[in-house]
C-alpha cells in the first residue's frame, strides 16, 4: 500500500500544481501538509500551526537537505523522509531564530544523518512517538 501511494508522488507532472498532501504519521495522526512553494521561506513568519497541519518540502533527489529556523516564529518538529516513506531523521523541537545580527553564525543548522527526499515540518506535539526507522503514509494530494 505504501509503495502504491508513493507512485502517485512520482507521477504528478511538475506543471500539475498539488497544494497539499494528507500524510499519516506512524503515531496515527493525519497531517494536512501544505506543499512548500518557496523552499527558502517555508513557514517563516507564520504565527501558529494547528496540531494536524504541516508543510512538506519535496526534492527532486534524495540528499542531506539542511534546514534552519531563521525568522520562524514558532517551534517545529522536522521529519526527514526517504523516497520509500521511511523517516531517516527527526528533530523534535526546533526553536525559532529571530532577530540575530548574523543568522548564518547564530542560527542552528539541522542536517539529517541520512539522505531524504522529503522534509515534513509539523507542530512538535504531532511528532510525539515518531522516531527514525518508522514509516509515514502519503494518503492523497489535495488539488
Descriptive tags:
143 residues, mainly beta, Jelly Rolls, 7-stranded mixed β-sheet, 9 strands
Provide structural commentary.
There is one protein chain. This protein is mostly beta strands. Helices cover 10% and strands 37% of the residues. The strands form two sheets. The chain has a seven-stranded mixed beta sheet. A two-stranded antiparallel ribbon has the order 4-7.
The CATH topology comes to Jelly Rolls
Nearest-integer average pLDDT:
84
- Helix count equals 2
* N-to-C SSE string, H for helix and E for strand: HEEEEEEHEEE
Return the CATH class. Mainly Beta
Q: Strand order within the widest sheet?
A: 6-5-8-3-2-1-9
Sequence stretches where pLDDT stays below 50 over 5 or more residues: 1-16
Instruction: Classify the secondary structure makeup into a structural class.
Output: mainly beta
CATH superfamily: Protein of unknown function DUF192
Please report the distance between the alpha carbons of the first and last residues.
21 Å
The percent range for helix content is under 10%
How many strands in all?
Answer: 9
Cα-based radius of gyration, to the nearest Å: 14 Å
CATH architecture: Sandwich
SS strand fraction: 35-45%
Number of domains: 1
Q: Largest sheet, if any?
A: 7 strands, mixed
Shape: globular
Ordered list of secondary-structure elements with their pairings:
Blueprint: H1 2-11, E1 20-24, E2 30-35, E3 53-63, E4 67-68, E5 76-81, E6 87-94, H2 103-106, E7 109-110, E8 116-122, E9 137-142
Short description:
With 143 residues, the protein is mainly beta.
